[in-house]
Design goal:
42% of the residues lie in helices and 16% in strands. It is α/β, with parallel strands linked by helices and 326 residues long. The strands form 4 sheets. A 7-stranded parallel sheet has the order 3-2-1-4-5-6-11, sandwiched between helices. It has a two-stranded parallel ribbon with strand order 7-10. Strands 8-13 form a two-stranded parallel sheet. Strand 4, helix 4 and strand 5 form a beta-alpha-beta unit.
Length: 326
Amino acid sequence: MSKKILITGISGFIGRHVARLLATKKGLEIHAIIRPGTLQNRIGEFDGQFIFHQIDLTDIDELKKYLQNNSFDIIYHIGALRGGRKFSKKAFFDANVNATEQLAITAQRNDSLFIFCSSVGVFGAIPLQLPANNKTKRQEDNYYHYTKIRSELIIQKMVLYGLRAVIIRPAITYGIGDYGFPYTLIKLVDKKLMFLPKNEVIIHLSSAEYLAEIFLKLLDFEPKSGSAYNVADLEPVNLQELVDFISKELKNKSYPASRNINPKYFRWAENLARKFKSELWISRFELISKSWYYDIENTRNELAIKPPKTIPNFKNIINWYKSEGK
């Protein structure tokens, strides 16, 4: 039986990976909401396979009109304004919270399965409990995380009134084509500009390919409504070991020990970023000076897809970086 799918966020990194897997499945009618003016090179690979609808997620009235006239079997809501971008708080709230609410209302009205891409950021950049799990206290440490927390609360409340919903929380994701934290990490190691604290730092990344498989699994498997899954690689990694691995792949030698510095310098830098209210730089200093990792046991047990190991899986991204000629 054919399924009618709606997906948001296909021009973004995670959404594109999910869309590519959906495009390989037969018997799907796939509709995609894209921002007006989206560049062709971001969505061109899906021409002829997806039906595009140009709607900005901050335009709630336009989104409502579209949703009132359409229904779907499954809604994949992956689109969002990511943290650190220069948008107003109203734009963040409309795109990340109000749009989520409208899509969830539509799903509830039509008895659709609503699959929401949240973030482990609901626990804060640095969780108060390690490994962070579904019971770990939420932290509104930046506005992006606040919007994801609010969205999850809306969804869980609607579950009580019949919404069929699943929440997926990716850790920081790596994969070919993304220029975020993992790519920057490789670049800093390559330029010998990566400074590490002398204390041990444990981090937990997620392969984009593995994450996409999780989303695809939900085409044919529906967990208990309201279920939330933290998605990350098989186990956390020591940041120093990851940096050494990157250095060996790039330079055939371990990273210079001279780049290990007293942790107090990271605290000073973080405090300076807080003084200037720079959420982006606060997060950057925290992510390389403090540990962050997650409990993924229920994800592995219930969804039954084995995660990769960051080392050596990260080699694919290093090779891509080298092919870029950076």
